[in-house]
Amino acid sequence: MLFDMDGTLVDSEKLWTIALDDYAAHRGGALSEPTRELMVGSNMSRSMRLLLTDLGLPDGDADVAAAAQWVAGRMTELFAEGLPWRPGAAEALREAKALGLRTALVTSTIRSLTERALETIGRDNFEVTVCGDEVDGRNKPDPEPYLKAARLLGVDPAECVAFEDSPTGVAAAEAAGCAVIAIPCEVALDAGPHRTLYGALTEVDLAALGDLFTEAA
């Protein structure tokens, strides 16, 4: 079981919106809604470049790095105030652990912020974690984050189920060869041949999924 974090396990996309809006205001502008939607599921560097471009500001490497540092600092403050779970997420992680299912966290969020989030979602819920600054720039929608998680687990990606909430994340998991449980949060998701759409994690039968993939293996 490969779990995305923001928007899938925790309702943190709204916190990202706060931080991004705060940065835009800090620079004397406002982030447009279409650009904000493009950021959902994306990594920090791409999001900062989109943000700066949207604000009409220079978007060189140094500018992106400075914006990322500012936003990461604001997100650290917001994460420290507490992360709200997505419906059924805490229960799903507990059930996966009780069933003995192997799990990985596969997030576009940088390691420093992920470590903060793990204080809420629990480090011991995951055998491995893959963060957005640990894939040599090959971030979602590139399949590398999911391929790396499968490598670290020592399993075939085709034997994995990925849980995602964004078009970017779904594309990455599908490109890696994973089956996808798609649960939209901030952005609508379309149906597709390699994904199953649900309204919430509470609707997913993890035991049945585990049995299905055990039989297939």
Automatic annotation (TrEMBL):
InterPro entries xref list: HAD-like_sf (IPR036412), HAD-like_SPP (IPR051806), HAD-SF_hydro_IA (IPR006439), HAD_sf (IPR023214), PGP-like_dom2 (IPR023198)
Name by which UniProt lists this protein: HAD family phosphatase
Database matches in CDD domains: HAD_BPGM-like
Pfam families: Hydrolase (PF00702)
